[in-house]
Amino acid sequence: MAGTGYFIILALFVANVACTRIARQVYEVTHPDEWTSLSFDCPPECFCPPSFPNALYCENRGLKEIPSIPSRIWYLYLENNLIKTIPEKPFVNATQLRWINLNKNKITNYGIERGALSQLKKLLFLFLEDNELEEVPAPLPRSLEQLQLARNKVSRIPQGTFSNLENLTLLDLQHNKLLDNAFQRDTFKGLKNLIQLNMAQNALRNMPPRLPANTMQLFLDNNSIEGIPENYFNVIPKVAFLRLNHNKLSDAGLPTSGFDVSSILDLQLSHNRLTKVPRISAHLEHLHLDHNRIRSVNGSMMCPASPAVAGMHDTFSDGPRLRYLRLDGNEIKPPIPMDLMVCFRLLQYVVI
């Protein structure tokens, strides 16, 4: 059951990512008689493909301003230009927009006219990676499902920024300048359906507070996190994928129960300061502990107790579900301890 759940979640995530990458491949064939009308309203600095009438391609053209967007456009590509501002005027007629890609421009918060984005009532995907934003832009349309802000200069999240984004499922804030003081207890209030939160490569020393309850994928790699509060995962009972690689976690910084959290299926703790294997759940399937300071592995002590829950007997008839274990880069010497294999009978890959 746990293995099935893992692959279902992974499949959904991959499908979601794939969807964001293949929008260009969605064709709505247009009759030749309509090509003239499409060319008529197409901005001269852009390209309007007859085979994809809902898309407008304006990327890689050295643009400094956003052209006027025709009302028929759903997908707008403006990446890799010199755009500094997002005014309201170009979007007056663009009431059908679902997708905007503004990656690799020079947009600042001061350049975004208030209301320019929030007026787009059907917008689902907003890409603003590799710009010059210093805070998460607001207000944003309630319809938004994905917000990509990687590789900016974001250090602030104004209060109430996410209060109306109940449809947001993915928030990417990786590779910014977030410190612990960027978060208040109600920062993420409103994100009722958030599934993935990526805050890797920032400057956090503590785990972010009060995350949305539905969070399933939490990525915090490449920060300076030293510890995890007791009962931290009670607030995010559905978290399945947890990445804390390249932090400063030590044994003393972990909760008493370690990572004995039944929802976690994939746990990554590579490149930290652990000297022993933390406590884990019998549900865990993938465990990355490479490049820590672990000297030995005691399979008997590491072995989690199978959950004594009604209806779970068949699921755990073969013991804990761990299938992948990485321990290289520590001070452990082969061979693999026999008691480790006795406990984790489903292990398929062990790197030591």
TrEMBL record:
Q: What is this protein called?
A: Keratocan
What PANTHER family does its record include?
AGAP008170-PA, KERATOCAN
Pfam families in the record: LRR_6, LRR_8, LRRNT
Q: Which UniProt keywords apply?
A: Disulfide bond, Extracellular matrix, Glycoprotein, Leucine-rich repeat, Proteoglycan, Repeat, Secreted, Signal
Location in the cell reads:
Secreted, Extracellular space, Extracellular matrix
Q: Which GO terms describe its biological process?
A: cornea development in camera-type eye
Q: What species does this protein belong to?
A: Sarcophilus harrisii
Q: Mind naming one GO cellular-component term on file for this protein?
A: extracellular space
| Xref: InterPro entries | Leu-rich_rpt (IPR001611), Leu-rich_rpt_typical-subtyp (IPR003591), LRR_dom_sf (IPR032675), LRRNT (IPR000372), SLRP (IPR050333)
